[in-house]
Automatic annotation (TrEMBL):
This is AraC family transcriptional regulator. The keyword Chaperone does not apply. Keywords: DNA-binding, Transcription, Transcription regulation. InterPro entries: AraC-bd (IPR003313), Homeodomain-like_sf (IPR009057), HTH-like (IPR037923), HTH_AraC (IPR018060), RmlC-like_jellyroll (IPR014710), Tscrpt_reg_AraC-type_HTH (IPR020449). It comes from the Bacteria. Pfam families: AraC_binding, HTH_18. One of its GO terms (molecular function) is sequence-specific DNA binding. The keyword Kinase does not apply. Residues 192-290 form the HTH araC/xylS-type domain.
């Protein structure tokens, strides 16, 4: 990735007593021990899930703002930028893991198949009060207790609890209308591969026809896949990824707008500025000035 100004937190930095591929803690202990500077924007190289059981605040994830309150749950993909602003009594449970920690154990499934991890276009937050799902809240507590167990089967039980948590979150995610109805597996696989291709190539390649060619499908079929999965056209997803990176660079770096446009594969600064304003509702210059003024 071209932007290297943000800290990228590595999973192996958290806890000498934890398995290298997995970490779990209460939120207050996590902040106290490892991560005091939560108000500073940062990234991770792992999948993160947190349930808040106490406190209030705000959570900004890739420029989307979510309120924090008891029952708020967040699921973050590797590479997403975020930061928190929390009341002093904020607490709950947090766990994170590598892709291999999950995928190597559940060999018939991938963590990316869950809607909250399958697409950056999908929301990262859920509201699940304890009264509506006491078992889900209990599972977070049991996961925390099990990770402190020294028994030989503790890692396997922890994975089983994580699977149950993800299944409950998947159900709630769909019930709250936060993802389109599921479609045959071919659509899901094509969409996942399409987003992987976008992530690797959005700077150098912006033509839908090339992505369709890489996927061995027609542009028309790729449009059906994209519209069915996330309700957006392929070109809008490619553009959205480029504009997200543009916002990150405008916010977190002091690079000139012209240099940012060039780094993102736009040779025409005027076109880049028009596209940014159309997508974000504000010009690159005003976006940069607004966020610098408010932070």
């Amino acid at each position: 990735m071209i932007m290297a100004d943000l800290d990228v937190l590595q999973l192996h930095n958290f806890g000498a007593d934890s398995p290298r591929e997995f970490y779990c803690n209460t939120f207050q202990e996590h902040i106290r021990t490892f991560h005091k500077d939560i108000t500073i924007p940062h990234k991770h190289n792992f999948y993160l899930t947190v349930l808040f059981t106490h406190g209030m605040g705000r959570h900004e994830i890739d420029f989307e703002e979510y309120p924090i309150y008891p029952g708020a749950i967040f699921m973050l993909n590797p590479g997403q930028t975020h930061h928190w602003e929390l009341s002093e009594d904020a607490d709950g449970y947090i766990f994170f893991h590598s892709r291999d920690f999950y995928d190597s154990y559940f060999s018939q499934h991938s963590v990316n198949e869950f809607p909250f991890f399958s697409s950056l276009m999908n929301a990262s937050g859920l509201k699940i009060p304890k009264a509506s799902s006491p078992l889900l809240w209990q599972l977070f507590g049991e996961l925390y207790e099990k990770t402190r167990s020294k028994t030989n089967n503790a890692p396997s039980i922890a994975r089983g609890i994580i699977q149950l948590i993800y299944l409950y979150l998947d159900q709630a995610y769909r019930e709250q209308g936060m993802v389109s109805p599921s479609h045959p597996g071919g659509y899901s696989r094509h969409m996942q591969e399409f987003e992987k291709l976008i992530e690797r190539n959005f700077i150098s390649e912006k033509q839908v026809s090339q992505y369709a060619d890489w996927l061995n499908i027609t542009p028309r079929h790729l449009n059906r896949v994209s519209q069915s999965a996330v309700g957006k056209s392929p070109i809008s997803l490619i553009t959205a990824r480029a504009m997200l990176e543009a916002k990150r660079m405008l916010y977190y770096t002091d690079k000139p707008i012209g240099e940012i446009a060039t780094l993102l594969g736009f040779d025409d600064l005027a076109y880049f500025s028009r596209l940014f304003k159309k997508h974000c509702g504000i010009s690159p210059r005003h976006f940069h000035q607004s966020f610098k003024r408010n932070n």
